[in-house]
Amino acid sequence: MSIVTVSNLTVAYGSHRVINNLNFNINQGDFLVVIGENGVGKTTLVRSLLGFIKSQSGDITIDPQTKIGYVPQFRNIDQEYPLSIRDFIALNVRHSYLPWLKKSERQRIDQVIDATNLQDIADRPLGLASGGEKQRAYLAQALLPAPGLLILDESTASLDNEMKYELLDLVTHFQQQGLSVMFITHDWGLAQHYGTRFLRMTEDGYLTGPINELPQPEKEVK
């Protein structure tokens, strides 16, 4: 079942078309890898899916029952950052007026903390966590509302290899339970290891298909 359909999408900044007539879809349970060099529109695509940018033409259709979770690139957080990992995750609780967490919300926070292997450090200040731990906190925060689509926006770019695989192994666990994943990356190795389908973006056009048909780059993409 398709949860996202992008049809003839064109996005421009002034007279410069960043995305031109793009077509692809995301199905339930996909691990879609979006790969390409800088400047081909990957970030613009993410911002369009999140509703931050309006298209010049074309359509983005998202299943109305599908929530979107978002994990950003690694962001350096100062050691004096006051919130614990648990409180940072709780920032994504959406209630309208209560100044405290309901029991069901506390239970849900505990669930995602356990699921992302943060239970032993949940009360540690986020600023004192390692890079991999911080990204798992961002992952847990994104998973809190039980999204149907998780967007990873170059989320492994600043991690060492061990932490990259640890984070994506966790994501794959959720993907195998039905979560759809859209992973933006430069890393062909990670793409081929984790992806089920790909969208390759270039200055000359777009190519999509099953991951075993992903062409090798003409040069290594850093």
Describe the structure.
The chain contains six helices and nine strands, in the order E-E-E-H-E-E-H-H-H-E-H-E-H-E-E. The protein has helices at 42-49, 85-90, 103-115, 131-143, 161-175, 188-194, and strands spanning 2-13, 16-27, 31-35, 57-62, 68-71, 149-153, 180-185, 197-202, 205-210. The chain has a six-stranded mixed β-sheet, sandwiched between helices. A three-stranded antiparallel β-sheet has the order 2-1-4, with helices on one face. The mean pLDDT is 91.
Q: Report the total helices.
A: 6
Q: Structural class of the secondary elements?
A: alpha/beta
Terminal-residue CA separation: 34 Å
Oligomeric state of the chains present here: single chain
General shape:
globular
For the residues shown, what is the average pLDDT?
91
Percent range for β-strand residues: 25-35%
- Major beta-sheet overview: 6 strands, mixed
* Rg (CA only): 18 Å
> Got a strand count?
9
- Element-level helix/strand string: EEEHEEHHHEHEHEE
Q: List low-pLDDT spans.
A: none
Helical residue percent? 25-40%
Give the strand order, joined by hyphens, for the main sheet. 5-6-7-3-8-9
